[in-house]
Amino acid sequence: MRWPTCSLDELCEINIGRTPSRNEPGYWGPGSPWLSISDMNQGKLLTRTKEQITASAAHKLMGDPIAPGTVVLSFKLSIGKVGIVAAPMYSNEAIAALPIRDHTRLLPEYLYWTLRTVDLQRETDDAVMGKTLNKKKLARIQVPVPPLDRVSHGCFSLRQFLESGERCGECQEGQVVGSFAVVADVEPV
């Protein structure tokens, strides 16, 4: 079934991270986790980062940290990595934090799985460092918005599928994304 869609910026804020100057040693060291694309290989929940920024860097440069439960999406270089932050953290400029505007319309877990089905490559631009998206193009991504009870049921069923697959060691990436599309009754975007 085709559910109504909304643009990503209607459903979420789109907050782009930042990298403090590497030439300022007072910005790097124990403090707050700082998420880079290479940290996004740990699965759905992002619990740790390789680097931290100091309280000074956070205060002077970064604004508010990404709140736990927020979906993040890489949109430069390694496009399309998705995760949900499990603790307050900051990110670099290749990652967009997507705080949901209205949790009665959209769940973070649903947004996570939906963004995994979106073909972001068709929206990319070529840059010196490789493929990129920009904030304007991210804002236009269309997200199917089923009724919340359907989303809740779909996410619960998917969790059950994943748990059974993990127990028998048979979960494959394509199966997971395909199963989400079936369970949530959404078509890949």
From TrEMBL:
Keywords: DNA-binding, Restriction system. GO terms for molecular function: DNA binding. Belongs to the type-I restriction system S methylase family. The lineage of its organism: Bacteria, Bacillati, Actinomycetota, Actinomycetes, Mycobacteriales. One of its GO terms (biological process) is DNA restriction-modification system. The keyword DNA-binding applies. Residues 3-149 form the Type I restriction modification DNA specificity domain. This is Type I restriction modification DNA specificity domain-containing protein. CDD domains: RMtype1_S_Apa101655I-TRD2-CR2_like. InterPro entries: Restrct_endonuc_typeI_TRD, Restrct_endonuc_typeI_TRD_sf, Type-I_RS_S_subunit. The keyword DNA-binding applies.
